[in-house]
Design a protein that fits this description.
Elements lengths: L1 E8 L2 H6 L3 H14 L3 E9 L8 H13 L2 E4 L9 H9 L4 E3 L7 H31 L9 H7 L4 H28 L5 H10 L12 H13 L5
Parallel strand pairs: 1-2, 1-3, 3-4
Helix pairs in contact: 4-5, 5-7, 6-7, 7-9, 8-9
């Protein structure tokens, strides 16, 4: 049995550190040994999480097709919410095995792809509904800029500090449902959340871009004010 193995990690940082790759390789090696298979080549994909393009997957599928090999991946369940990946796999015409779901077939993958697409659409709708609800309440998801207005009015420093704190609290309250929607989508790391908010054009309370530190502060503010806003 000829095997083409495909490994995947979701961020460049993980790809550079090898986080998760060793476990995937171990699972594939175990399956290859169990089925007396020979791994002819291994492809490693480092996805950004924002793009559906998977050049290493395309190479792996091509090699498996022209050599008659079986494509082996470590964890299909980890990719079960990724409709683009599942559809590519289903439509490739290549034999495949997932170490964690060795009995999966084209029908299984097709059903998983449909469920994944429905989940993606539901998550997108929840995010849009959360934004619409915030706007309907008259809240601004951009820069409240309250502190600047106070400075222009020559207010004292204490008033400015209170205004900054109040604006940040309100901003955190408005963003909470967006963060919950992202969490449902699996976007939970500080860097991934920062990237998602920046992609959606959402600014920090001071009108800047989001970074890991500002997301950490946002989460801390939401936790601090839980039940009070």
């Amino acid at each position: 049995m000829k095997i083409v193995s495909y490994l995947r990690v979701s961020t460049r940082r993980q790809g550079a550190s090898g986080l998760g790759l060793a476990a995937q390789q171990t699972a594939i090696d175990a399956l290859a040994k169990q089925r007396h298979g020979n791994v002819i080549q291994t492809f490693t994909e480092v996805e950004s999480g924002k793009l559906d393009a998977r050049p290493e997957l395309a190479k792996a599928l091509h090699l498996a097709k022209v050599t008659g090999a079986t494509l082996v991946i470590a964890k299909l369940d980890r990719l079960s919410r990724n409709a683009a990946f599942l559809l590519t796999l289903r439509d490739s015409g290549v034999k495949f095995i997932a170490a964690d779901m060795p009995d999966a077939n084209d029908l299984t993958v097709g059903i998983m792809a449909l469920v994944a697409q429905q989940e993606r659409e539901a998550i997108s709708k929840r995010t849009k509904d959360a934004l619409a609800a915030a706007k309907k309440r008259g809240m601004r998801l951009g820069n409240p800029n309250g502190a600047a207005a106070l400075r222009r009015a020559h207010k004292g420093n204490q008033a400015s500090v209170r205004a900054i704190r109040a604006a940040a609290d309100e901003h955190a309250h408005n963003l909470k449902p967006v963060l919950e929607s992202l969490a449902d989508e699996g976007v939970v790391s500080l860097g991934a959340v920062a990237a998602a908010l920046n992609e959606r054009g959402m600014l920090t309370p001071r009108g800047g871009s989001w970074h890991k530190s500002s997301i950490r502060n946002l989460l801390a503010r939401i936790e601090q004010n839980e039940g009070t806003l």
